[in-house]
Amino acid sequence: MTNWKKLFDDMHIPQRRTKGWSNVNCPLCRNPVDTHFNGGFSDSSPAYNCWRCGKHYWLEPLSLILKTTPFEARKIVDSYSFNTANKPVDYERKQNIVLPGCKELTRGEFEYLKNRQFNIPYLQKKYGIRGGGIAGDWSYRIIIPVFLEGKLVSWTGRSILDRKTIDELKIPRYKNLSIENSVINPKEILFNVDNCRNTYVILVEGPFDVLKMGDDCVCSLGTSVTAAQKKFLLSRFRKVFIAFDNEVSAQQKAKKLAVELDMLGIEVEVVNICADYNKNDPGELTTKEVLAIKKELFD
Question: What ranges in the chain are assigned the alpha helix state H?
Answer without folding.
Answer: 4-10, 59-66, 70-79, 107-115, 120-127, 163-169, 207-213, 227-236, 248-264, 287-298
